[in-house]
Amino acid sequence: MSTALSKVRDQRRFGRLDQPRELRHPLMPRLYYDPEAFGQFSERIARFLGTARFLVYMTVFVVIWLAWNVLAPVTWRWDPYPFIFLTLMLSLQASYAAPLILLAQNRQDDRDRVQYEGDRARNERSVSDTEYLTREVASLRMAMNEVATRDWIRDELQRLMKDLDGRRQES
Asked: How confident is the model at residue 56 (pLDDT cuts 50, 70, 90)?
């Protein structure tokens, strides 16, 4: 009992544990932007980053970069052999891609959670409907056992006819 009470207290104090907490006193003024639009934008980028087209574009870009900086005249090269600037560009791209992909995954997780809750509610309704129908069918079967059916009446009449025929022959 005390652990359940402490869990309730923790939940009141910390809010939902599956979501990050908001800062109470941000150091910088809050930027006003539409989080939904930014989320959709990040999903589009993450969707593009996961395609073969992106890999082909990135490969072509790197090959052209390397070829230019190796084969071009020395005065035209902007990134000589260790390719420091290319490394910086790829690191910058990766540093922006990773959080955008994580944001898109979090949004997908939220959508999946909502869909799961809806599915679970539908399943609960389906189970309760099935249980109700099962009880109704059982009650109908019990009621049918008490009602004289056509086959039962026919069997009873045939049995009575055999009894009467048997008595006539005896007398």
From this structure: very high
